[in-house]
Amino acid sequence: MSFRNRIATAGLIGLSLVTMLGVAPMTLGQAAQTPTAQPGVAAKSSEYVEEKGFKGRIFEIKYRDPVGLFQVVRPLGSGFKGATVSFDKQYRTLTVRDFPENIAAIEEAIKRLDTPEGPRPDIEFSVHVLIASSSSGGPEDYPAELGDVVKQLKSALKYKSYALMTSGIHRAKEGPGGIGNSGVAESNLFSNVPTPPNPIFYEYSLESISIDSGSGSPTVQVGEFKFNMRVPLNLGTSVQYQNVGFRSPVGLRQAERVVVGSTTMGDKGLVVVVSAKVLK
Description:
single chain, 280 residues, alpha+beta, Ribosomal Protein S8, Chain: A, domain 1, 2 domains, 4-stranded antiparallel sheet, 11 strands
């Protein structure tokens, strides 16, 4: 059979199959058509969830911090569009909108986690703020317990004398909150303040406090220690306040005195020493 006859025979066979199957033949060059969405009807994505598939539940939190529990249970949600987990600190609640199985998983987690906390020990912090001077004839006025610290500071820094600006003793417990203090410093510790002297304001805070007992002896971790002081500067006929300070995380072993930070103020220096004691 010739090549031309073979093509004709194949065409007749294909046409017969189309007729037998009841399918309309597609002319040469005709493109396949895909169904189009009906006017006014939005196409649904694979994440689309009908609202009737969700349930809602409000959980009352009795013992723990709702914000902390929210961070823990939020990954248990389905993640589908419209599913939510939210908290309210005032009413101490968690509100969940999700599939019933996800709500059940969150409920089980809250039952295990929302339990009374055991007694937490108090932590006693001692904060000392020292003013350092470059002159050797300055007053050496600081608590005796800081003698070793001042000796190390003299060998490490350029300052020759140290005097106490302020001290504070504070008690706190573990938690995301913190403690702080503020006050007015004595101007006679500074040589560059205007005359008559303007007040020198200071403030400090210890935030995100926790106890690490993994190594046996407890270590107090302070997520951030912040210190700030507003010092007046004499600029001709006017006085302008300058902010000096620092912020830093710090770890404190039991009764250990740590230099948290230091900064300079003209010919003076400022050093903050902190210690912590876990009280049984």
